[in-house]
Design goal:
This is SCP2 domain-containing protein. The chain has 135 residues and is α+β, with helices and mostly antiparallel strands. It contains seven helices and five strands, in the order ααββββααβααα.
Length: 135
């Protein structure tokens, strides 16, 4: 008999993600102007990450469509997000551009805001290797 493993709650993941981002030296070095909010949509669960001057100020878990505004959305299946959460991701799960071109990831909304904050967003996605997938 094996013990069932239980994934952390959505709020526990959100707290771990915020902590990892707020203590990451790279984001803190590059994030002075990193201010935006974005939706991480993993089909089964969604999060709106709010960032002010390089610090995550709030992560809303499963917000309704009018609960929290966001600038852009990064949408993918739970399977794709789980691929990003692997310690050593497989090919095409290492970055949002690869996943957009070769997997089911979609970038929607104000893509200019995404591009203006691309280095920090990329680093936050890389932190999924540490905190795990959002689903």
């Amino acid at each position: 008999m094996t013990a069932a493993t239980r994934a952390p709650s959505a709020q526990a993941w959100a707290d771990a993600f915020a902590e990892a981002s707020n203590t990451d030296p790279e984001i803190q070095a590059h994030g002075k102007y990193f201010t935006c909010s974005y939706l991480l949509d993993a089909t089964e669960r969604s999060y709106v990450v709010e960032v002010q001057s390089g610090r995550v100020t709030n992560v809303a878990v499963d917000p309704g469509p009018l609960d929290v505004a966001y600038d852009f959305a990064i949408r993918a299946s739970a399977e794709t997000w789980r691929g990003f959460g692997e310690p050593v991701p497989a090919p095409m799960f290492h970055g949002i551009w690869a996943a957009t071109f070769q997997r089911d990831m979609r970038l929607e909304g104000k893509v200019l805001v995404l591009m203006q904050n691309l280095r920090c967003i990329t680093r936050q996605i890389e932190l999924l290797r540490v905190v795990g997938a959002p689903v």
